[in-house]
Design a protein that fits this description.
Chain lengths: ~300, ~260, ~300, ~260
């Protein structure tokens, strides 16, 4: 689409609207509703080395203009992905970005190595919202140094573009973005979910099967836009914005704040056509405002 | 295949206090819907409530289908305000419904509370396919009884029980089930029989237990909180003997022996 | 009200429902709508040493189930508070908690000293979401050590109960809660607003007069409940929960998570009767569940 | 004094495309409302949209009052769906309205777009108190013209201008104002005259400039985003010569000389 093409960290996309990890599976179920070839890119559900069962239900609870989820990285592991999921995605022209997570930097590196051989995979997104079992369960995303180390290890194992996906549950998003950049990341994406909780006053228990869950949806958009803006001031590598994007206008806010592309997450649940509609809405905005290319908007918010 | 479609409201009425029947136009959905399948409905245009809400397909006609629902919260509250002529965003038909086994000539449909919703379409579908249909309806009290007459139009064997005894037998659906199995159907016919159940989890568990003891086939329609409704988010899982399975996609109807019944 | 009285850090309240700083002014305007004597406590708008003009408008923008504000501590200074605002509040039986902020620890201490002499003031809430000009604009709330130092200085100047109000824009709420406790705080309150941003796609400017603002309202409740729960695991001093409380049920979630009392903020804008209605709803819940005192619920969520 | 009250909808109709007139029952509010005051209305029961929305009091009767509003976003969209007989949560009457000065015998009311809303109550209030009322209405185009007849019922001097010339004079309200001041009222009578203006900021600024040049008193009704509407949040400020003042409380009506007009 004219004015919407991009090359992000070396990944060619026909538009800057991707689907976010965990909200689109591995494309197969969603393909019954969505024309996959119209997407900018497909980011897979997080893949781990070994299969994971995930957390006990309930895994979803709705909150005001948002939702908490505690899926907990349920997936069948990297082998199943490569053998049974990737062939389906390989049939489409849309680039596939594999989202990975591990309990140690070594696991991430191993995953990256395996994916490096798969020509259908065009990029790797590193989900660092995962506890670092080596460091005693401390989350990678809370620790700039551990994150940097992780990125460096992964960098050695793959020539694929590396996108580091940041968590918003931290004090200084700019600092961790810089660390990721310095360690060799090709792009960063943000934000993952905000850590939240909901308690059932009848049962006195969590309304999820786990005590806490991840908050997503329109409720978190203002936080996401702010963090994209902060990160954009700090790094030169492209930023992929994510968090509560429901409309083309929302996407435009992220571009103006400094995002080079965006991901649509929770919106997929509300409207299966969300990514395609959002792409159209961006196109219409460009036409109405006589803007040749959406890139003219990146980071162009008039903010001090 | 399923579709996301704006369906026009053809009819919408309160059939009992806080219970509504909603008739939606869609030749696509009505021509494909199978008993036990559901639709995922957008109840609000704003972001609160945000997610769609799942409702069983209650009945279908050539060009339209019906939902039967109870107002229990924000989503159903907003849905209940939709007027005739307006359009509602619907995703469907979704999920894997009741499997009809040609060999089972005696069908026992057990519905608790709103669980009757998918059973009417099932009963109407089974009508010409089996020899006998027993419909067991349970609810708290008489005022919450739904669809009795609709079921009576399909079969003579409609057995109502209420928790408080205000109508029909006092007791649970599972009590009625035991009676029907023991007294009416009888041991000889159990292998020809099948139970289809929908309702609250404790009821389903009780029925699954009975079916297990009696060695009679049993399919249960499960409920779980959903986000996507189409199998992408992994939000709606139930524990089965093969690990977590998705209610929206692998279910909502499961063989009762598959489910690991927890409390 | 039976079952609702409490003594929090030495402050006697008839119920655990206070109004949050900045959402109730100094009580006078609100008193036209709300029976002040029915409130648990009144927390004033933040008071500074010198008058502050505040930020340029627009100062309010609505977001999904929430709002951003950039009021920017507009107030007429401590002298005006003591001379012109406090006398009005002193007429009521409801305890007044003065919320204060300064650009340096010294300013906070000075404010505390002045308030110490005012018998109508029953407690001090320290708003640490304020840039530390001495430390080059770094916010106190991001720096556990600076926060501790601040609390220690204030502690020396006042015998009034000190409540430290924490910001959610940090990685480790438990750590800063512990520091505040160790430094002599009598209670902590949380959360203040989440830092957020909203961009107008027409003007490309912030939808606020400032680039960023504070996000409040139901949208942030899951984050607030989670942080109260985390803080409650870390400290022994009472916790005052705040963030998106609109109903009695919301308040109960905070009690179950570990809050000893709560503050109602944004809800006051939606329903002037919110604090009173919430108190009633809590009372009804206790009656329905045959619970003698709300304190039986504090921290009683069944979470691991 | 003001009140938070659930007001019953007595009437609700679309008076022009996307423009509605809403009649609400409240003897409290209607008996106290002064021209230029407003009410803060809860448009949704859910949390999106969350905040109340301010609307000028358009007209009052003994037991009810009217609002005139345009659907521009979520809040007004939801408000427009309220049916007759339902109840709406209203806070009011709020703010400090137009100050009527008994010495000024010539009143010039200038309204741009929705700015006419509070001017009708003002015109009706002034009717028996002043010698002459001039009503200057401006809007984009004919289809967006509001209340012309209502004003004509109060005064013969209703002057319409449209930006595109599709009705009345082509031009802005401020152009009409200059003409009226120069040609009709004349320099001698300016000291007896007063301007009351409500509309978009650029229009108010232009009118404030004219009033300054002509040394004629001028009151303007300002708009700003509100949260509380009652003076507690400090959200709705405008810059004045005495620092920031609250639109909801110190205003919405200000002396035009007080305001620091920025772009
Ligand atoms: C496959 C499937 C089919 C269904 N068919 C029907 C139907 O035909 N008719 C009908 O009335 N309802 C049906 N439901 C339940 C229906 O989806 C919920 O009642 C509805 O989502 C409630 O939305 P709400 O916003 O009104 O309530 P909320 O405000 O979301 O919740 C109100 C109360 O209802 C409970 N609740 C809400 N959703 C569910 C759920 N999915 N499972 C269990 N408890 C829930 C909540 O815990 C809460 O206590 C079905 C659910 C599923 C999963
Ligand atoms: C004192 C006062 C009196 C008013 N009287 C009337 C009236 O009588 N009739 C009427 O139709 N409107 C009136 N308004 C404006 C009215 O409050 C807004 O149109 C309404 O709040 C929009 O809500 P929404 O949710 O539909 O739009 P939103 O979705 O909130 O916004 C839609 C668009 O309208 C703009 N907008 C919204 N609110 C305001 C505001 N307060 N000031 C400036 N721009 C705004 C937004 O920037 C946005 O572009 C008045 C405003 C004030 C402050
Ligand atoms: C149900 C669900 C599952 C998710 N799973 C993952 C995941 O496996 N890996 C990941 O990096 N992010 C995951 N996310 C986070 C999203 O990719 C996205 O960062 C977040 O939801 C914010 O965007 P949104 O508000 O548009 O949903 C998940 C989000 C949801 C709602
Ligand atoms: C308009 C507005 C002004 C506020 N001003 C202050 C303030 O001056 N000092 C302070 O400590 N907190 C201030 N807050 C934060 C609130 O006290 C509260 O911590 C926050 O809004 C979260 O609660 P809520 O979601 O219930 O509003 C303000 C909040 C709002 C919405
Ligand atoms: S609801 Fe998303 S997988 Fe079932
Ligand atoms: S809207 Fe809150 S002070 Fe005016």
């Amino acid at each position: 689409m004219a004015g919407l093409e991009l090359e992000l960290a070396g990944i060619k996309m026909k538009n800057p609207v991707m689907v976010a990890s965990g909200t689109f599976g591995y494309g197969e179920e969603a393909s019954k509703f969505v024309e996959l070839d119209k997407l900018g890119a497909i980011v897979t559900k997080t893949i781990t080395l070994e299969p994971r069962e995930g957390n006990p239900p309930p895994r979803i609870v709705e909150t005001a203009s948002g939702m908490l989820n505690s899926i907990g990285l349920q997936n069948k592991g990297i082998k199943d992905f490569i053998e049974n999921r990737l062939p389906f995605l390989a049939k489409y022209k849309t680039p596939v970005i594999a989202n990975i997570a591990g309990d140690s930097a070594k696991e991430y590196a191993e995953l990256a190595k395996m994916l490096n051989k798969e020509s259908a995979v065009k990029g790797i997104e590193i989900n660092i919202s995962c506890p670092n079992v080596v460091k005693g369960g401390m989350f990678f995303c809370f620790d700039p140094k551990a994150t940097a180390e992780l990125v460096r290890l992964v960098r050695k194992q793959t020539s694929l573009p590396i996108i580091v996906k940041l968590s918003p549950n931290i004090t200084d998003i700019a600092a961790i973005a810089k660390e990721a950049e310095a360690a060799g990341a090709d792009a960063i994406s943000l934000i993952n979910t905000l850590l939240g909780m909901a308690i059932d006053t009848k049962t006195r228990n969590s309304r999820l099967g786990s005590p806490t869950g991840g908050l997503s949806g329109p409720a978190i958009k203002p936080v996401a836009v702010r963090m994209v803006w902060q990160a954009a001031q700090a790094v030169k590598i492209p930023i992929i914005g994510c968090g509560g994007i429901m409309t083309g206008k929302d996407a435009l806010e992220f571009f103006l704040a400094g995002a080079s592309a965006i991901q649509v997450g929770t919106a997929n649940f509300v409207d299966t056509q969300a990514p395609i509609r959002i792409t159209e809405e961006i196109k219409n905005y460009l036409a109405e405002n006589k803007i040749g290319c959406y890139k003219e908007l990146i980071g162009k918010a008039l903010l001090t | 295949m399923s579709i996301q479609e704006k369906c026009r409201v053809l009819d919408h009425k309160e059939v009992a206090p806080k219970h509504y029947k909603l008739t939606l136009f869609s030749s696509y959905i009505s021509s494909r819907a199978e008993p036990g399948q559901f639709v995922n409905v957008r109840c609000s245009q704003e972001y609160d409530p945000l997610l769609r809400r799942p409702f069983s397909i209650h009945r279908v006609s050539k060009d339209y289908f019906e939902l039967l629902y109870e107002v229990v919260g924000k989503g159903t509250e907003q849905l209940s305000k939709q007027t005739i002529g307006s359009e509602i965003d619907v995703l469907g038909p979704l999920g894997s419904g009741f499997k009809i086994d040609g060999k089972k000539q005696i069908a026992i449909l057990a519905g608790g509370g709103m669980g009757v919703a998918p059973l009417l379409l099932l009963a109407e579908t089974l009508k010409d396919k089996v020899k006998a249909i027993y419909v067991l309806i349970g609810c708290n009290c008489k005022s919450r009884l739904l669809c009795e007459q609709d079921f009576k139009n399909v079969t003579d064997q409609v057995l109502v029980s209420t928790d408080d005894g205000s109508y029909g037998k006092k007791g649970f659906v599972s009590d009625t089930l035991l009676e029907v199995l023991n007294d009416t159907i009888g041991a000889r016919n159990l292998s020809q029989s099948i139970i289809y159940a929908c309702g609250p989890k404790p009821m389903l568990k009780a029925i699954a237990d009975i079916s297990f003891q009696k060695k009679i086939d049993c399919q249960v329609s499960m409920e779980e909180r959903m986000a996507c409704g189409i199998g992408t988010c992994l939000g709606c899982v139930v524990k089965t003997k093969d690990g977590y399975k998705k209610v929206c996609d692998d279910g909502p109807v499961f063989d009762s022996k598959e489910i690991i019944w927890q409390d």
